[in-house]
Design a protein that fits this description.
The longest helix has 28 residues. The protein is built from 14 helices and 27 strands. Helix 5 runs parallel beside helix 10. Strand 14 and strand 15 form a beta hairpin. By secondary structure, the chain is of the alpha+beta class. The strands form five sheets. Strands 7-6-5-4-8-1-9-11-2-12 form a ten-stranded mixed beta sheet, with helices on both faces. It starts with a helix and ends with a strand.
């Protein structure tokens, strides 16, 4: 009898264990919907005081966990790269400027969640690698780990014609899909979520909308919904066709549209839009965007998916100076003041995933933290990549995290770099610093550097650590370069220069060599200038347009000398090393000499050992070593001579 009872218990145990196993296998993993706005200001949302109603986005913020101290980059590509990878974009080939090429070898949330068994889709703007149609070496978005892609590669799109950027379905260029792009993006995102759901697959649906980025082309019916407060300020009501042509007829679209439609009128100059007219169009674009966010959320609600879907909303950077509202912050897009990098952000997390969540996370966090946060919320089996700059926000969301005392975000931008913590924000220039108390002065109205020397001292140590961690070769600071001694020998470049009575700064192109600058690149060369020449300054650099990339704020050599400042020359060779990182990731083809005389005259400048290196000391490009690159000399004033 005892044996029979044990046998029954053993049999029942198998059934119980089996039922637990079956339940675990059939439990649905959380879906993920990421909604990314483009160029939307913090104050553009009606929940933050914006004049145009945004009820659908407001609902995400009011019903979800609000991140009231959420950081981005001041422009879009770096934000997108950091969002995808959890890494400071300076480490990914995609920062600090736009048009970078995200290293496909780096794990991103597309291929990560794809390996987790998720269906992954991207709908809208990519802006992290080149269009693969003209550039056959470029990776398709599918190769980055997205099963489905509908959208475009470039930084902006004509809302109707799609412009020269191209509109893709996966790896196929589709040129005749000319419906309003904001509507198309939500349509294909919903199709993807619906297909994934019916096939019983969890999905990661990443929807980086083109809205509210310019050109602000709108559907005519949207103009009827512009609030009276905005519309009544438009004095001269023009036709819809005028507004559409005036907005699209920007330099980047003119030639394309003229050729595509065989209509030379596209090249004709249009009257400029008044600020009130721009505000009207911008309001209509916001309305369209919010409508489409509503369509995404309505789909989830009608199909009972909200109880198992994580929804994230934020903008890639602040609003633009000509259209956006970044209140209550200072600055706009292209600025490291809060108006450029502080986004409205929120995440809806169903109770089935986290039972208890805070309504607001006041601690500083941002775009780098999304990937690790989603991985933890969805209980992923894979380990995250090592050395991520982002952290999981789950404990902050639950309210169980310890106070943040050593968390920093780091940026570089043009002639300065910036370090931010929960309390402090430090701006570091070549010749000054700015310090703001972010607890008491979120509007950054008072520079308190002078009254906080100990804070400055500590933050300067920390910002240097962050700079070294990112590997950046800053243009406004001296580089720590070893063995920076001139080694001119053999063949050298001799450039004849002169100045007449006007004594203006001059730049002449000398070499042609196509190269792409990454964040850890710097330029080095040997130079000699006759001390009798009475030169104020003279330096070699990449050229953009007709001028050096350096100026009176950018371009500091390893001795902390600003290249475009009065310089003492003697009859000896000097070695110069100067950062290029702030211009990354840009392409250059011209390099040359920039100089200014103290009084009219002429002289010869000598150059040798022109190289571009990375911060590991590895040579990336050799631009002139002896006579190897003689064929790349483009100036008649430059000749190759024996040293």
């Amino acid at each position: 009898m005892k044996t029979l009872v044990l046998a029954k218990l053993f049999f029942l145990g198998i059934i119980v264990l089996g039922s637990i196993s079956i339940k675990a296998q059939t439990t649905k993993r959380p879906n993920i919907l990421i909604i990314l706005a483009d160029d939307m200001g913090h104050g553009d949302l009606s929940i933050n005081g914006g004049k145009t109603p945004t009820p659908n986005i407001d609902r995400i913020i009011s019903e979800g966990v609000r991140f009231s101290n959420f950081m981005t980059n001041p422009v879009c590509s770096p934000t997108r790269a950091g969002l995808l990878t959890g890494l400071n974009p300076l480490l990914t080939g995609a920062g600090p400027n736009t048009d970078g090429n995200l290293d496909a070898k780096i794990t991103n949330f597309g291929n990560y969640f794809q390996k987790e068994g998720y269906k992954t889709g991207l709908f809208g703007k990519w802006h992290n690698s080149p269009n693969p149609t003209p550039d056959k070496k470029a990776k398709t978005i599918n190769e980055y780990g997205f099963d489905r892609f509908v959208g475009f590669y470039a930084g902006a799109v004509d809302y109707y014609s799609k412009g020269s950027t191209g509109w893709f379905h996966d790896d196929k260029l589709v040129e005749n899909e000319l419906d309003y792009s904001t509507d198309l993006i939500s349509k294909y995102a919903i199709d993807f979520m619906d297909k994934s759901t019916h096939e019983n697959n969890p999905f990661l649906c990443y929807v980086p909308f083109n809205a509210v980025h310019g050109p602000h082309v709108v559907k005519e019916e949207l103009l009827k919904r512009v609030p009276a407060e905005i519309m009544n300020k438009v004095k001269n009501k023009k036709s819809y066709d005028f507004y559409r042509k005036a907005v699209i007829n920007m330099p980047e679209w003119r030639n394309y549209n003229a050729e595509k439609y065989k209509d030379a009128s596209w090249k004709l100059k249009q009257d400029k839009l008044e600020p009130e007219e721009m505000a009207m169009l911008y309001s209509a674009v916001i309305t369209s965007f919010d409508d489409n966010v509503g369509l995404l959320m309505d789909y989830l609600k009608k199909n009972n998916l909200l109880e198992n879907t994580i929804v994230l909303f934020f903008s890639d950077n602040g609003g633009t100076e000509y259209a956006g509202n970044n209140a209550p912050f200072r600055g706009f897009k292209h600025s490291l003041y809060e108006g450029g990098i502080h986004s409205a952000a929120a995440m809806i997390i169903p109770k089935t995933i986290l039972t208890n969540t805070k309504k607001n996370v006041p601690e500083m966090c941002g775009y780098l933290d999304i990937f690790p946060t989603l991985a933890e919320l969805t209980n992923c089996s894979q380990k995250l990549p090592k050395n991520l700059d982002g952290i999981s926000l789950v404990n902050l969301i639950k309210g169980t995290a310890k106070p943040q005392t050593d968390r920093y975000y780091y940026w570089i931008w043009r002639d300065h770099d910036v370090l931010r913590s929960d309390k402090w924000k430090l701006f570091r220039y070549q010749d000054k610093v700015e310090l703001y108390n972010m607890v008491n002065d979120i509007g950054e109205t008072k520079n308190v550097a002078a009254s906080n020397p100990l804070v400055i001292k500590e933050l300067l140590k920390q910002i240097e650590k962050e700079a070294k961690k990112s590997g950046v070769a800053n243009v406004h600071l001296p580089l720590d370069i070893k063995n920076a001694k001139p080694k001119a020998k053999g063949k050298i470049l001799a450039i004849d220069v002169s100045s007449d009575d006007d004594l203006k700064k001059q730049t002449i192109k000398i070499l042609k060599n196509d190269f792409t600058v990454l964040a850890d690149y710097y330029l080095e060369y040997d130079i000699k200038v006759d001390p009798k020449s009475e030169m104020s300054f003279c330096y070699f650099s990449p050229i953009k347009g007709a001028n050096s990339i350096y100026n009176d704020k950018m371009g500091v050599d390893q001795t902390n000398n600003l290249l475009q400042s009065p310089t003492e020359f003697n009859d000896k060779w000097k070695h110069i090393a100067v950062g290029l990182g702030s211009f990354s990731p840009l392409n250059f083809s011209d390099l040359g000499l920039t100089f200014k005389f103290k009084k009219p005259g002429k002289t010869t400048v000598y150059l040798d050992n022109i190289r571009i290196k990375n911060m590991k000391g590895e040579v990336v490009y050799e631009l002139f070593i002896d006579e190897v690159d003689k064929d790349k000399i483009v100036s008649r004033k430059a000749t190759v001579i024996n040293k």
